[in-house]
Each structure stands twice: as C-alpha cells, then as structure tokens.
Amino acid sequence: MIGLNLCPFAKAVHVKQQIRYVVSSATKTETLLDDLEHELKFLRDAEANLVDTTLLILPKVLKDFSAFADFLDLAEIVLRTHRLDGVLQIASFHPDYVFAEADAEDVTNYTNRSPYPMLHLLREASVSKATNAFPDAAQIFERNMQTLNSLGVAGWKALEVGVDEASKEIL
Predict the structure, then answer these.
(1) Cα–Cα dist 120/53, whole Å
(2) Which of 3, 57, 124, 167 is deepest in the core (most CB within 10 A)?
(3) Cα–Cα distance list, 107 to 68, 97, 136, 139, 143 (Å)
C-alpha cells in the first residue's frame, strides 16, 4: 500500500504510529462479531492523534471469500446498531478479493488483497480530512488501476514475498 502509494493517506498514519494492529483469535463469526464490536468502540473512544485507524486481522476465520463478503453485511449491521455509521467505516481486504465487475485473476483486485482477511476500521472525519487535503482524491482509484495494470500479476506476486515475511512478524 505505502510503497506503491496505492493509498496516499496510509503513509502519514504509519509514520505517526497511529495504526492499531489487532489480530483476532476468532475461529467463528460470532466471536469475530464480538471482536469487531470491541474494536469499533475502542476506535470511537480513542484519541485520534494516538489511534486514527485499526486493522483487524483475521487469520483463523473467513478464509473463503464468499463467506467473508457475506460477513461484511453483518459488520455493517454492527456499525449501525452502535450508531457509528457516519462516524466510522469499514474497508475490506482478503487474499482472494474480487471486485464484482472483475475477473478473479484481474490484477486490479490486488488493491484489496491482503495476506489474511482483514477489516480496516477508519474514522469518517479522518477520511474526509485526508480526501479534502488531497487535490485529486477522486482519481486515486483510477491511478491505482493504472499502477497495477503496469505492474501486472507477475510483478505484484514478486512484491508479495516481502509482504508475507512482514505479515508473519505481526502474527
């Protein structure tokens, strides 16, 4: 993400150490829902200058992308139940992520692929602030598609070797 500048906002929170990394031990969706609820409340209550975003990493659950996609509906219900829609948002990443309109092997899917299923919890205010400060925020997606198309699947897979090693350190 940071090295290819796929998310121009990620570097700042990384450098400021404002990213909370949480590895869920959940093996069932019920337990994962509890973990998600806890992390949403934690992020809501945390000082933004200390914790601006959370990566909830899911190494033991939702390995099937269809099940993961179905779980996202439940995650949105949790967000609304706690009246956090408009306050926080959830971005999703998965090793087998496929955009609805894309073929499974389309390189552009890699913008949302990660070594493990993952929920990225973001503050709406931080997202708004970042996109307002970025002159061409609407162009980020298109630029990412161009970057990945230039890199190709083989180029991306060559980069994954270092990512896999870094992800082992977190887990």
Answers:
(1) 7
(2) 57
(3) 20, 11, 23, 18, 13
Dihedral sign for Cα atoms in the order 69, 74, 77, 79: negative
Say which residue, 105 or 35, is predicted with more confidence: 35
At which residue do the structure tokens 């162009």 appear?
A: 139
Q: What angle do CA 86, 87, 89 make, to 5 degrees?
A: 80
* Torsion angle (degrees, nearest 10) of CA 141, 146, 148, 150: -170
pTM of the model: 0.78
Residue 78: CB atoms within 10 Å: 15
Q: What share of the chain is helix, strand, coil (3-state, %, to 5)?
A: 55, 15, 35
Residue 65 to residue 39: CA distance in whole angstroms: 22
Q: What is the side-by-side strand order in the sheet with 19-23?
A: 19-23, 53-57, 118-123, 88-93
Say if residue 123's pLDDT is above 70: yes
Distance of CA 83 to the CA centre of its chain: 21
DSSP class of residue 116 equals: S
